[in-house]
Each structure stands twice: as C-alpha cells, then as structure tokens.
Amino acid sequence: MADQQLTTDILILGTGGAGLMAALHAFWHDPTLDITLVSKGLLGKSGCTRMVQGGYNVALDPKDSIQAHFEDTVKGGAFLNDQDLAWTLVEDAPRIVRELENRIGCLFDRAPHGRIHQKAFAGQSFDRTVHVGDLTGIEIMARLRDQVFATNVRCLEATRGLELLTASPNGEVIGVLLLDIQTGEFIVVRAKAVILCTGAGPLMYQRSACAQEKAMDGIAMAYRAGAHLMDMEMVQFHPTGMVVPGSNLNGALLEEGLRGAGAYLFNNQAERFMVRYDAERMERSTRDRVSRASFLEIRAGRGTDNGGVWVDVSHLGARFVEQNFAGMRERCLRIGFDLAREKVEVCPTAHFNMGGIRINKGGFTNLQGLFAAGEDSAGVHGANRLGGNGVAESTVFGARVGESVAQWVKGREHAQPDPSQIQETKAQANGFLENDNRESPWPLRDELGKLMWNQVGIVRTGAALEVAIKSIKALQDQAKATGALGVRAFNPTWQQALDLQNLLTASELIARSALLRQDSRGAHFREDFPQTDHANWLKNIYVSRNGDGPKLWTEPVKLTRIGLT
After folding, report:
1. Left (φ > 0), alpha (ψ -120 to 50) or beta: where does 544 sit?
2. Phi, psi for 293 (deg, rounded to 5)
3. Rounded Cα gap, residues 415 and 423, in angstroms
4. Which run of H or E residues covers position 164?
5. Structural contact between residues 119 and 131, judged by C-beta atoms closer than 8 angstroms
6. Is the pTM of this model over 0.70?
7. How many CB atoms lie within 10 A of CB 424?
8. Domain limits of the chain?
9. Active site residues
10. Least enclosed by CB within 10 Å: which of 38, 78, 224, 385?
11. Half-sphere exposure of 437 (CA within 13 A, CB side)
12. Cβ contact 37:148 at 8 Å
C-alpha cells in the first residue's frame, strides 16, 4: 500500500479551541497559506474544549482588572507560573472574548444591564467567568467550527499523528507521519511549520474527566523529537467528578460553577469538611486543595460507600439550579440523582496537565519548526490551573501561535523527510497489528490506570514514586508485545496499542518529575515533604530526551511581575 503524500505550509495537530483558533488566525493573517488541520476525532465534535461547562475567565467589569486576574492566576499556580505567559493570558483575554462574540459569533449569557454575564468561580477574587449556561464549550466549538468551514483550511478527520519528522543534524521539525484511522493508511506530510494543539489529557489515570481519544500524543511526540518539557509533575485533579461505578459517566465533571455559586461538600458524617483544610474559602478554595481534602477524607474512612464525598446545592433553591445548571442536572438525572433537590456523590478525577512543552508568548519551542498551544504547552498555569483559565488559554494562545506561524513560514521552503525515519515509524506502528501472537493492550491500560492513581496521584511519597517508575518501565517492556488482530481500518485495539505507548512515555516523565520535586506545591503534594519550600524549590523542573531516557534539570522561577506574597 503506497503512502499518501501531502505538502502544506502549516500543519496543526488538534482541533479543540487552540487548534481552531490557530487555523483561523493563520488564515486571517494570510489567506493564501495552505493550512491543514488534523483531528483524531471529528471536527468540533471531539476533544476537551467542547466539554467545558463552566466558562472563560476574563477581566471585563470596570471594578475588576487584568492585574487582579493575573495575581489570582499566579497565586493559584503557587508562583510556579511563567509570569510573562500568565500576563499574556490575562492581557489578551478581553480582546479575544470580544472576538469570540463579535467576529466568531458566540452568544454568551447576558446580565440584566445588557453586559456579558460573569459568574463566580473558585479561587478567584472577582466574578469574572463568562459562560453560556453550563454548556460554554459546546457554543465556542460550534461557532469556531462554523468559521473554519467558511475558509479553505483543509481538515483531516479521524486521523492521528504518529511521529514528528525531523531534519538532521539540528532536529528541525519538517513534517509529521500521520495514520488515517478510517483506512489504516499512512500519510506523509511535509510542512514548513507544525503546531501541536492535541490537548494532552491525563488519561493514564484510573479516573479521568478527559475525552477518551486523548493519549498525551502531542507531548510524547514532542519529547521523542527533542523538545524541552516543563512542570510535568503538575497534574490537576478536579474535585467534583461524578461517582457512577461501571458507567462511562464515572469521572464526568460537575463543574466549578457549583462551588462558585455556593455548593457544600459533605463527608459521610454530614460535616462540611473543608473547614479543616481552608476555613476561609471553604468550598471555593482552589482545585488542588479541595481535591486533596476530599482524598484525605475518603482515605480516613469518612467517604461514601463508593469512595466519594457529597456535593449539595439544594439549599440554593431548585429553580436556581434548574435555570443555571441545566446541563449538569440532566446528567445527574440520568444516574438517578436530582442535583436541584438532593446531594450527589462525587470524587476527585484527573482533569488537566499543567505541564507540557516549554513555549514563549508566540508558541515557539526549542525546536525550529515546532510550535505549541493549549494543554500541550506549559507555563501559563504553574502548579495549579484556575477553573475558567483553560479555555481562555486555548483561545488566547491559539490565536497568538496562528499569527506567529503565519509570519514565520513566509519565504521558507519545504524540506525532504528522511525515508529511514518514515520506514522505522511505520514498522513500529505496523508491528502492533501484523503479529498473531501479540497480547491485548487493554489489560495493561487498566494496570497503568491503577498504578498512576495509587502511586502518582493526589497524594504522593518518594517511596511510592520509586515503585511507580520501576513499574512503568516494566509496563513499557510489556507494551511492546501488545497489538491487535483484524483489519487496519477502524481497529480500536490497534489504536489503543498506539495510545498506550504515548501514555506510558508521559507517565514516566510525570513520575520522575514528581520524585525530583521535594516539596509540596499546587497539585503536587508529597506527604514526605508536605510544606511549600520557596527557598529550595521555587524552580521549574525541565525534561528532555537523552538517548533512550529522560534528562531532568531545574531552573529558578523568574518573578518578573510580582514577588512572593
């Protein structure tokens, strides 16, 4: 079977908020560019942006300010943020949210006075979350998709990236080898620039709220190509994932707006347990603190029979809940709970990677020709992301990287990929299909989920992390012998075997970074180092590939705008 060949100016992997904004802004900057989007699922119907319930943080109210938004973001990130990136987020957000409404066509909820309505979210000093009920992501993605369809941007759906193609000796990224999931055919793409917007997604954890096609593809490919990653130990666990044993809804989110509106969290003794962990902010504390508190309550035997806690908004009034959280109420009704009138069982769930590829404000990485935005990148959120800053990041930096790349590719020529790299990658991918003696990847995926949840989860220790690293290495060896039978087209077990390789790569980087960091900060909590140690650990941890394994190092955080407070 001959490979398909494609030559394009800009190749964008990922079609969430970051990817679509990058495509639109590159096209608007120069409509003559040949731009290609690659979606592992269906355009506008897959990924995590469309799953956003809560909203978009932006300082619009005259009583609010971008400085206040910035300080909330940096303090919420335990001062690990790249402050220049965090400032870019809050400075650009007002312009981008107006662009979403006035140019792209999003219809955000309005307040009685006619301005955009902004609701309360946890961890913030002002009500600044723009929303569309509790289905904000669906509105943003639908309108972005409409705008992309109105351009000449090419879109390859049900297609995944296998490997970044690089030129020797400097490692410049010159294209990507793709796999068409629908046909099983390979596509060799030559590109002047590649933008990674695959959305990361901590699906290596037993309980996760991410879209199921996520597998850390972008981060794993970037690592193998030689990109510098940072803050990989910082994995966010959302405190209110639904507890529905045996259901696909298990781990699905009840969003931040519940706690922002005044939800209570109870243990099995009917105590509002947050008083023990953050008596000032209670349930409106940051996600890292609330998730850790819930985990510790459950571990202490004060959880529900299913290993959760209770969230309750019934005291806010049934009509209020029905009007403001209709989407979440509908999901709860499907599993037998009426969110408007009774408490619902929840548990922390893996939600977001603060770590990822190191970028600057334009989305540039250390590799020429490779750019990144959204959850594939790192630095904006530091050690913990505030609810509502995620979709803001994806659209702000998606727009920026699109414009950066549109300028950067001018006058550049396409390079010819190395045939040996293409053949080696194809052989590895085919090896998971063309062998009748291979084991199924599904049991190893389950084993990895339990391992990461128990050893590299919400509460960590050095001993557990050392065990985890050894176990991950063993799983990596076992995963080489996994594979699938049957045809190439739409073979989910083959895709799972490919996903597993990337998840194991990212899992090792998370565990090794977590072992190196000997303090507790944001989402990273070490029971053997429970204090935040600014004197010794106000540092970012970086990782890059060194031969067959990772090299880790640290660099001090640059407090360019605000100091420790």
Report:
1. beta
2. -60, -45
3. 17
4. strand 159-167
5. yes
6. yes
7. 13
8. 4-55+77-87+132-234+352-408, 239-348, 419-556
9. 238, 259
10. 224
11. 2
12. yes
d(CA 521, CA 544): 22
pLDDT value, residue 252: 85
Retrieve residue 504's tokens. 């194991």
Please name the CATH architecture into which domain 4-55+77-87+132-234+352-408 falls. Answer: 3-Layer(bba) Sandwich (3.50)
Torsions phi, psi for 408 (to 5 deg): -65, -35
CATH class of domain segment(s) 239-348: alpha beta
**Closest to 398 measured CA to CA, from 58, 109, 28, 53:** 28
* Residues in a beta bridge with 35: 10
Q: Which of 241, 238, 232, 46 is nearest to 157 (CA)?
A: 46
Per the CB < 8 A criterion, the answer to whether 48 and 346 are in contact is: no
Query: For the chain, what is the radius of gyration of the CA atoms?
Result: 22
CB neighbours of residue 440 within 10 Å: 14
> What pLDDT shows up at residue 436?
74
Residue 145 corresponds to which tokens in the numbers above? 């998709």
Instruction: Tell me the C-alpha distance between 354 and 233, whole Å.
Output: 8
Are β-strands 370-372 and 154-156 bridged in parallel, bridged antiparallel, or unpaired? unpaired
Q: Letter for the amino acid at 327?
A: G
| Torsion angles phi and psi, residue 543, rounded to 5 | -145, 140
Sign of CA dihedral 388, 393, 394, 400: positive
Each residue of 259-270: b (16+ CB within 10 Å) or e? bbbebbbbbbee
- The two tokens of residue 413 are 């020529």
Distance of alpha carbon 505 from alpha carbon 163, whole angstroms: 14
The three-class DSSP label of residue 121 is coil
Reference 445, options 510, 512, 509, 503; nearest CA is 503
Strand partners, 549: 546
Mean pLDDT by 10 residues, the chain (565 residues): 92 98 99 98 88 91 98 98 99 98 97 93 93 93 97 98 92 98 98 97 93 94 98 97 86 88 97 97 94 97 96 96 92 91 96 98 98 98 96 98 99 96 97 84 97 98 99 97 92 97 99 99 98 98 96 98 92
List Cβ neighbours of 21 (8 Å cut-off, separation of 6 or more): 144, 394, 395, 398, 399, 402
Q: What is the pLDDT of residue 48?
A: 87
How many angstroms separate the CA atoms of 123 and 282, rounded? 10
For 419-556, CATH gives 1.20.58.100
In whole angstroms, what is the distance from residue 196 CA to residue 13 CA?
Answer: 5
H/E element, 394:
helix 389-408
